[in-house]
Specification:
14 strands, three-stranded antiparallel β-sheet, homodimer, Rossmann fold
C-alpha cells in the first residue's frame, strides 16, 4: 500500500492527473511539486499560474478550461484597462483575490510555500501543493525574435515565435523548497504528470539538486507522456519539441526523462512505439491517457499506482 | 468671471456639490482638495475612499449610493472571504482595479497626488482632484469603547460607539500637497462643500498651515451646511456633533467655520436660523441645498458662484 506519492506538475494536463491521484490515494498522501518558472508580476501582484491551476483543480474550483476559476467575471480587468494597464493576461475577479492575498502575505514575509499552504488549507485542498522553490526562477523563451518572458511568449504571443531554446533565470541560485525536499525523503513513488517537459518539468529539473535526487530516488519513477501521436493534448509541447529539434512523440518524451524515470505510460494510440520507448531505456506501459471525465482521471491515477505498487513488491 | 475655485470635500455630499461646480465652471477651473484621513490599507492595497468618491463622481461613474462604482459586482471580495480575509469593508470588483493600480504606482514611488492625477486623467475627470496631503494622516475616533481607526468606526461599527473626540494621527508631520498649496495661491474663491465638518473637513484643517491659509485667504469663502434642521442628509455628522456637545444645526456648523469662512449657505428649512448664523459672525444665505438631481447640483453650485462673484465685485 502506497501512502505517499510525490507528483510533479505544471499546467492543466498535470493538474488532471494530480486530481486523480488525490482521489485514489488516502487523504494527505499526495505531494504535488509545482513549476513556478512561469510566475509573473502583473499589476504589482504576484501571479503563480501553475500553482493556482493545481490549487483550484484540487479544490474543485477550476473552470472548464482547466485554468482559472469556474464562474469567473472580468470586471476588474475591464476597469484596469481604463487606467491604461496592460490587460493581455486574463485575470478573473475571483482569481484576483488569490493574487491579492498571496501578494499581501509575501510582503508580510511569508515564503511562497507558506502562502501556498495557507491558501490551499483555506480552500480545503486535500493534497500538499508545494512550489518547486521559494526563490525566483523565471522561464525565458529564447525565440528567433529575441528573448521573451514566459507569459509574454505563452499568453501574449500565443507561442507563435519560433524558439531556439529556453532558459530558467535564477534557477542556479534557487533551492528546492523544504516541502519538496521533505517529500523526496518520504515519498514511495515519483510521478511525472503529463505536463510540458520543456517549460513545466524543465524548470523543476533546473533547480540545483533535483535531477540528482531523481536519479537517486529509491522508489519507482513513473511518467505519463503529455504527447500522444505527434501532438500535445494541450499547450505548446509539440511545437516546442519540433522547434528544439526533438522528436515529437512519446519517444521524444522518453529521451527527456531518461535516467530520472523508470516507466513511461503512453497512450493506446502509441502502442506501436512501445519498443522505441524501451530502446531509450524506459519501460513502456500502454493505457488510455486522455482524461476527459473524472473517471478517466481516477482510472489513469489508479493505473499509475498499480505500476508503482507492482514495482515496489518486486 | 471666476475662473478658479478651490473646493474642499470629503464624502458623498461634498462630491455632489463638487460635481455641480465642475459643470458650471469652465473646464479645469475647479480644484477639489479631498480628505485623506479616512484612507486605509485593505488586503495590502491603499484605499482612499474620499478621493475615489470624488474621482468616480466627477467621472460620472459613481453608483446611486454615491460611493463606489455603478454596476459593481463583488466576486473578488467573496473569494477573499474564502481565504479568511476580513471583508466588512465593501469593495467592488471594478473598485479593486483602482486600489490595485494606486498601490502599484505608490510602490513605484509616485506620490498620492501624482497617482490621483494619473487615475483622474485616465477617467477623463475635468477637474483637478487633489489629496489634502501626500503624507499619511489617519483619523481616529476616540470612543467610549476606546480608540477606533476611522473605517473601523465608520463602516465596521456603523458609527455606533459614542465618540468623545477625534484626532488626526500624523497630521502634525503632514504637509499640504503641492496642488493644494498652488490652488490656495491662484483660486479666487474657497468653497466648503457640504461634507462632515468633523471627519471630512476636520482632517484638512488639521494639516499645518491650512487653517492659517484659510484665515488669510483673499477671496470669498463660502460653505454649504451639511446639516439641515437637526440632522445630516447623509452620514454621522449630526450624531457626532451631538456626542461632542456641539449644537446639531447649521449654527453648530457656523461655529466650526468661524474665522475661516465668510458665508454659510443654509437650507430653506433653516431660514429661521439666519440671525443665529449671523450672530456667530458668518453671513447666511438661504436656498435649497438638497441635491437630488443633476439640476439641483448645478443650481446650488451656481448659487455659490453667484455669492462669490457678488462679493468679488463689491
Amino acid at each position: 500500500m502506497i501512502n505517499h506519492v510525490l507528483a510533479l506538475a505544471g499546467g492543466v494536463g498535470g493538474a488532471k492527473l494530480a486530481l486523480g491521484l488525490m482521489h485514489v490515494l488516502p487523504a494527505k498522501s499526495l505531494t504535488v511539486v509545482v513549476n513556478t518558472g512561469d510566475d509573473e508580476e502583473f499589476h504589482g501582484l504576484h501571479v503563480s499560474p501553475d500553482v493556482d491551476t493545481l490549487m483550484y483543480t484540487m479544490a474543485g474550483l477550476n473552470s472548464e478550461a482547466g485554468w482559472g476559476l469556474a464562474g469567473e467575471t472580468f470586471n476588474l480587468l475591464e476597469m484596469l484597462k481604463n487606467y491604461g494597464a496592460p490587460t493581455w493576461f486574463n485575470l478573473g475577479d475571483k482569481d484576483f483575490a488569490t493574487h491579492i492575498e498571496r501578494t499581501r502575505l509575501l510582503r508580510e514575509g511569508l515564503s511562497l510555500s507558506e502562502v501556498t499552504r495557507r491558501l490551499c488549507d483555506k480552500l480545503g485542498v486535500q493534497a500538499n501543493v508545494v512550489p518547486m522553490s521559494d526563490q525566483t526562477v523565471r522561464t525565458v523563451a529564447e525565440t528567433v525574435e529575441g528573448d521573451l518572458a514566459f507569459q509574454d511568449y505563452f499568453v501574449r504571443r500565443q507561442c507563435e515565435p519560433v524558439i531556439r531554446g529556453v532558459r530558467f533565470e535564477g534557477a542556479q541560485q534557487a533551492r528546492m523548497s523544504s516541502g519538496f525536499h521533505a517529500a523526496l525523503q518520504t515519498a514511495q513513488a515519483l510521478v511525472f504528470c503529463p505536463s510540458n517537459p520543456v517549460v513545466s518539468i524543465g524548470p523543476i529539473l533546473a533547480v540545483p539538486g533535483v535531477r540528482e535526487a531523481f536519479q537517486g530516488f529509491g522508489g519507482p519513477r513513473i511518467a505519463v507522456s503529455p504527447i500522444i501521436g505527434d501532438h500535445a493534448l494541450k499547450g505548446p509541447a509539440a511545437k516546442m519539441f519540433r522547434e528544439l529539434g526533438e522528436e515529437v512523440s512519446c519517444v521524444g518524451v522518453a529521451r527527456r526523462l531518461k535516467g530520472i524515470c523508470d516507466v513511461l505510460v503512453i497512450d493506446v494510440q502509441d502502442a506501436h512505439r512501445t519498443d522505441d520507448v524501451r530502446a531509450v531505456g524506459l519501460e513502456a506501459v500502454t493505457t488510455n491517457t486522455i482524461m476527459e471525465t473524472e473517471k478517466d482521471k481516477k482510472d489513469l491515477a489508479q493505473k499509475v499506482l498499480h505500476i508503482a505498487e507492482k514495482r515496489l513488491s518486486n
